[in-house]
C-alpha cells in the first residue's frame, strides 16, 4: 500500500514512478495500472541503496524484427480482423483445360464437361466500419429521383448497346424498391441508410445463381439486395452526366461534374466491398466495365486509375468465362449481354492500349465467342415469340439486320470487327521486330480494306446532303466507322515510316482523306446550323463502344486531335519539305493548294470548336500554332524564326515544348510529328468520355 514520504505526500507505485506519471495512490492497484493491466507494486523505500553483494537484474532490451510475430503480440490489437483469413463468397470461376480440376471433371462419372466442383464457404464476417461506410454511400439515395431523371434524359437522346435501357431500368427499379421498403415515419435518412447497409451486407454474399431457365423477373429478384446493383446505379448516373449537356435545366440544383466524381468514389467503395468477400459474377463485370469508363471520364486516360481498373476488369471477364460461349448454361438475354460485355471490355482495352502505347491486357487469340446478334436490347429481353421473329428477320449469311437500322446491335458488331483488327495493328506497332515489315503492313492494309468492303451497304459513310433521312447521330456513327478504318491505315504506315526512317507514299493520301473528311463533316453541320462541338475530339479508336455515339450538342472533342492532328502533321511536314527543296510542278498526289486550304480550315477549327475551359485546349492551341507557323513560312517565302509566341504565357517558346530534344530546329521535316508524339501523352480530356457502355 502507499506510505507517506518524508514530505508528507503518499508514495507512487513503481510503474507510475518509473514512468514519471501522476499516480492516484489507490491500493492495492492504482487506477492507471488497472486500466493498462500493469503489475502495480508500492516500494517502501524506492531510493534506498542496494545492499552490498546483491546486484539487481539489468533490464534486457530485446531487439525484435519489425516483421516478426513478436511486434504483433506486443501491441494492443484493435484490428483483429487483419489476422483473420477472409472467406470467399464465390467459386473459383472458369477453369480451363490446363487447370488443376480438368482431369477430375473429365473422368468423373455424371459430371458434365466444365462443371466446377467447389466446397461451401463460411459466412463472411461483417465489420461495423464497413457497415457505417456503406451507410454513408446509401445516404446519397436521398436524391434517387434526381438520378433517375438524369439517366432517363440521357436515354431519351442516345441508346446504349451493352446494358441498354431495359437493364438500366431494372437496376434503378431494384434499388428504388429496396430504398422505399425502409420508409418509416420515425426513421431519418441516416438511420434508414444504416439499416439498409446492414441488410445489404447480410444478403449480398449469397450466391448469384443464374440458370438456363432463369427468367427476366427471376434475374431482377436475384439482383436485389446486392452492393453491385447499388454501385451500378451510381456509376451509370455518373456516366450519364457526361452525355447530357451541362447547361440542361436538370443540373440547376446539382453540378454535373461533382456528380461524376462522387459516382466514381461510390463505385470504388462498392467494388471494394465485393473484393473483400471475393464476389465474382456478371454484375461485378458490369460494375468494373463502367467504372473503368467513368474513371477515364473523370481523370483522363493518362491517369493510372483507369488502366489499373482495366486490369481488374480483364481478370474478371476471364474468371467468369466470358471469353467462351456460354449459350448452353444461361438464358438467351444473358448470353447476349455477356457477348456485349466481353466485346466492350475488349474494345476498352484496345482504346487504352492505343492511347498509352502499352501492350493490351485482353488478347483475342484466347477468346472464342460468336458475333453479337444485330438485335435491339428490347428484342433481346422480349419473350421468345418476339425474339425469334426478330432473329428470323436477320440476314442468314451475314447476320446483319435487313432494315438498315443503326440503333440495334450494329455498334457491338462493328466494335468487335475493328477492335480485333486494332489488336493486330498494335501487335505490329509495339513489336520491335522489323523483319518483312513492309510486307506485313501491306497485308494488314489489304485486310482492312476487305473488312470495310464486307460491311453491309448501310454502314458505309457517304457525304450525305441536307435533308437526308439519316439522323445526325446516325450519320456521325457512320463517319466514325469511315474514320476508324482510315486511322488504322495511318497507324500502319506511320509505324513503317518510324521503323524504316522513310516516308511511305501511302500515308500522304491517307492523311489527305482524313483531313478532308473532317472538314466536310464540320462544313455540313455549319451549313445546317447545327452545333459542331461534337466533332472536336471524339477519337475513332473508341467511338464504336460509345452508347452515345456522336453528340452534336455536346462538347466532346477527340477527332480534331486524333486522327486529325497527326494527319495535319504529316501534311504540314510534307508541305514544309517540298518548300525547303523547292519542288517544282504540281504533284497530283499532293495538290498544294488543296493541302494549304484544308490546313488553314483545320487550324481555324482548333480554337473555335474547342473551348478554353476544356482539358485539351492547350494541346489544340499548340497544334494550331505549329500548323500556322508552317503556313506562314510556306506562304511568305521567308525563313521564319523557329519560335512561336505563347499568348497564354506572353513569352517566346520553342516548338520543342516539353518532349522534344533541345536544339531541334523547327524547320526539320519531322518536327511536328515528333512534337505531337510527345505531347499527346499530356492530353487530359478523356478518350473514353463517349465509352458509356450502358
Secondary-structure element order, as H and E? HHHHHHHHHHHHHHHHHHHHHHHHEEH
- Which regions have little confidence, pLDDT < 50, spanning 5+ residues? 50-54, 62-77, 107-122, 531-557, 640-672, 678-693
Strand order of the largest sheet: 1-2
Helix tally?
25
- The count of β-strands is 2
Rounded Rg: 33 Å
Task: Kindly report the oligomeric state of this protein.
Answer: single chain
Rounded mean pLDDT is 77
* Main sheet: strands, sense, barrel: 2 strands, antiparallel
**Residue share in β-strands:** under 5%
Distance between the termini: 75 Å
Helix content: 40-55%
Shape: globular
- What structural class do the secondary elements suggest? mainly alpha
Report on this structure.
This protein has 694 residues and is mainly alpha-helical. Among the domains are: 1-47, Zn(2)-C6 fungal-type DNA-binding domain (CD2-Gal4, Irregular), CATH 4.10.240; 460-694, no CATH class. 51% of the residues lie in helices and 1% in strands. It contains 25 helices and two strands. It has helices spanning 14-18, 31-36, 69-73, 102-107, 128-138, 144-157, 164-180, 189-203, 216-223, 227-240, 256-277, 282-299, 304-319, 332-356, 377-380, 384-392, 410-430, 437-454, 472-500, 505-527, 540-543, 564-580, 592-608, 617-636, 671-679; strands spanning 643-646, 651-654. The protein has a two-stranded antiparallel sheet. Helix 7 (164-180) crosses helix 10 and helix 22 (564-580) packs across helix 23. Mean pLDDT is 77; it is low at 50-54, 62-77, 107-122, 531-557, 640-672 and 678-693.
